[in-house]
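Reading a protein record of the kind used here takes only a little practice. The record below shows the convention in full:
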Amino acid sequence: MDTVIAAQPRQIHRAASDLRRGVPVLLTGEDRLLILAAETAGPSAIAEMRALGSGDPMLLVAPVRGAAVLRRSIEAETAVVAAHVPDALLHVDALRGFADPTAPQTRTPLELVAAPSQAQAALALARLGRLLPAILAMRIAPAAEIELAEHGIESVSAADILTYPAGETVGLRRIASAPVPLNGAPDSRVVAFRAEASAIEHLAIMVGQPETAEAPLVRIHSECFTGDLLGSMRCDCGEQLRGAIQKMAEDGAGVLLYLAQEGRGIGLVNKLRAYTLQDRGLDTLDANRVLGWGADERNFLVAALMLVDLGIKRVRLLTNNPDKVAALEACGVEVVGREAHAFAPNSVNDAYLATKAVRFGHLLD
């Protein structure tokens, strides 16, 4: 039984990796669906899919993107939009234009068709690979599975994909720890965590000895390459990161949980695409949705599990985001207080901070 459980995430990781490399993947379930990420599809992969698949090729996209591609309104309860892709548009430039709203757009609207049963799993697999949720799909005949195996096409269960996100935290454990003296907080160390089913690593920056405190300061901080490392003025992440460590040093102890959830969980490349859309007039929430992602794709369960492993069950949470308070409490970590962590706008991030307050409910007053 353990072997079967371990095999499921392994197959999902391989399938997500194949999509990133522009390789087709077979989704099993009610139907047999051959899929290819529109973002990474190349001419040879498209030709391979046409040779192995049957029926008409379909484009599967999230509803907001589907409305733009089809140039029509989409019913609110629609989970995935499916459209027929004619041969004239079955090429790399058109597919990438359908997938990426920041790329040159294909002007020919597509025809709406019924979405296959695995459509949601197909988009979920693209998101797991940090790809735009836009998939080229074709049904296959059962007899073609032998030929698919001969081509080395990875096969993965649609049901396993849809239940996978909960498995990202299974077996989360610390894997390394070392002292890392920081400017202003020389008594610091970094503890690295990894889940059994994932190659993603999350970090706990321990200032002083927070595990001995009654309720230490804790900050849940999602990684931000542009803000944390480059000092981007588009957000307040760098200030929040350095400000949190400074406050913990002044307080005598604290933990900063540095989670590998760039761009609210959509990844760095997609965050840069979202920036492009923001420069065209969208706010950060709508930019994510137009790309086909949710407004916030982060999972704070991993933060709670890290705290439990570190022996910390009561915290003073350094945050402006009520959702983080609710998430920790729902996971069994007692939040004895919330401490504000707001920084003044800098004339570049004014609209960004206003969106956090108005649309995400952050407490910035």
The longest helix spans residues 2-20. DSSP finds 15 helices and 14 strands in the chain. The CA atoms of residues 64 and 339 lie 36 Å apart.
